[in-house]
Amino acid sequence: MINQKMRYKAVIFDLFGTLVDGYSREGYYSALSEMTSILKAPKNDFIKLWMETASRRVIGDFPSLTANLEYICGELKVPVTKRQLDLARWIRFDFISLTMAPRTGTIETLSHLRADGLKIGLVSNCSGEPPVIWPHTPFAPFFDVTVFSSVAGLQKPDPKIYLMATEQLGVAPQDCLYVGDGDDNELTGAAGVGMHPVLVSAAQEDVAEAIRSAPKIDDYQCPRITSLQEVLNLLK
Fold this sequence. Notes:
- By secondary structure, the protein is α/β, with parallel strands linked by helices.
- Helices cover about 40% and strands about 10% of the residues.
- The chain has two domains: about 10-20 and about 100-235, HAD superfamily/HAD-like (Rossmann fold), CATH 3.40.50; about 25-100.
- It has a six-stranded parallel sheet with strand order 3-2-1-4-5-6, sandwiched between helices.
- The protein is elongated.
């Protein structure tokens, strides 16, 4: 639980559903439909294999998005050209890029944390696109460390992925707040290594319409906030 008398040294954030909104179901499937149209693949079969390879994408099992698309088309015996693969890849990258827009007040909150001398880290379960897009986002200048599952080769709630972040930040897990939306049992995982988890649930987000890895939010008992600005109150 949060110790109000403790001086924390770092705040580690989740990405989707925390710094930015989670994938909307409508946008996610719209992008997939465009991709299947370009690849001339049977839509339902393509989406089925796309979902089945999600866990492999998240730990970087495919060297690139193109490799993932080639694998799926190969399984479906759908011949594709480099041009088709490039177009489908661009659609996916465009979708992810649009999704990675800061929630209201997020940049201001990060600025306050930086001004207060706290270290800032990221631990995200994601496919290979966000790490490529990240340096071009408004977030990049504020973060000391980023650990993306697709680069690290492991995902939350594996204890090792949290410890990768704290080791790179040079702080003990006990000195960190971990802020996430509760997907992938991330709060329980953070607490398990000694961090102090905080659940953020944006009031405007319709969880039923968001694409999530897990069917339910991690029920670890911890402080709950509805905007990232409230993190500042937990540090006073």
